[in-house]
Amino acid sequence: MSLPTYAPALEKTSAPHSPVGVFDSGVGGLSILQALQRQLPHESFVYLADSGFAPYGERDEAFVLQRARSVLQTLLQQNQIKALVIACNTATALAIHVLRQEFPALPIFGVEPAIKPAALLSHTRRIGVMATAGTLGSAKFQELHRSLQDQAEFVLQACDGLADAIEQQWQQSDHHTVIKLCRKYLDAMGEFGSATHQIDTVVLGCTHYPFAKPWIQALLGPHVSLVDTGEPVARRVAQVLEDEGLLAGLDHTPTLQLLATGETRNLQSAAKAWLQSSQPVSKV
Ligand code: DGL
Questions:
Q1: Calpha distance 78→134 (Å, rounded)
Q2: Which of 18, 58, 63, 83 can bridge 107 by disulfide, Cβ–Cβ 3.0-4.6 Å?
Q3: Domain 115-228 falls in which CATH fold?
Q4: What's the chain's Rg over C-alpha atoms?
Q5: 126 pairs with which residues across the strands?
Q6: Quick one: pLDDT at residue 169?
Q7: Residue 251 class from Cβ within 10 Å (0-12 exposed, 13-18 middle, 19+ buried)?
């Protein structure tokens, strides 16, 4: 991730006590919000699930960019956010460069598949990358991949339908579809384990996938490492907010707002399970 370019000052109504905006196509970004809340316990957050337009993973670039822009405008106008975390690999890959140009005064953070940390971790130098087709097909990811190609072999797997199945499992308690898809995509990637020709590290390159971690780990066995991005991104957000004088004061009472553009029940259930929050979800 490269550092965002900042305008000299944030001309706006937001202030250090304003919330940080976090968004994803659905519940996946809660895996990032969880890490943000741990790292920044005094901050207020507003989380928006773009459930009316999900999933993003198999949509084209113009669609994802238009959705990301519209979500950002909503969060700026209605919630006066002081920073935005795009808690979605697909939207980061396809839209962050444009949004940073269009909103130069706003700190905008993104997430990308953690293939750099994975290359440091892997002993066999064979690394699996699970992500959406949109992320893997993006110029941003391809550039990152090229830059690390001499360090390890990356087995790239587009997991069509997996984010959506994870989204739906909150209502239907249908873990069966999630497990079936995980098995299908892991089988397609090859052999896992710690022998030289085997994949010993798997990158969860979509923010929905950490919610399937127990099943993925069970299918892979205990000797394969799973890598995701929540904590490093949260540390980075904390550092930049501090550098920019944008951290909420220690006396600030943190709040959490939950918004959705479409159906609200998935976010309601997921927030309860993952953030222990019973905050009602508002439709925007
Ligand atoms: N959670 C998202 C990501 O990290 C998007 C999944 C989707 O909407 O397909 O890519």
A1: 29
A2: 83
A3: Rossmann fold (3.40.50)
A4: 18
A5: 153
A6: 83
A7: exposed
Computed over every residue of the chain, the mean pLDDT equals: 93
How much is the pTM?
0.94
Q: Which two tokens stand for residue 267?
A: 């976010």
Q: Is 230 in the pocket of ligand 1 (CB under 6 A)?
A: no
Read off φ and ψ for residue 227, nearest 5 degrees. -125, 130
Q: Where are the domains positioned within the chain?
A: 20-111+231-283, 115-228
Eight-class DSSP state of 280: P
Q: How far away, in angstroms, is 185 Cα from ligand 1 center?
A: 16
Residue 133 exposed, middle or buried by CB count within 10 Å (0-12, 13-18, 19+): middle
State which fold the 20-111+231-283 domain adopts: Rossmann fold (3.40.50)
Marked catalytic residue, from 64, 88, 106, 246: 88
Q: What tokens appear for 258 in the block? A: 């939950």
pLDDT of 165: 94
Closest CA to 163 of 252, 243, 51, 263: 51
pLDDT range class, residue 177, cuts 50, 70, 90 = very high
Strand partners of residue 158: 131
- Cβ of 135 closer than 6 Å to ligand 1, yes or no, is yes
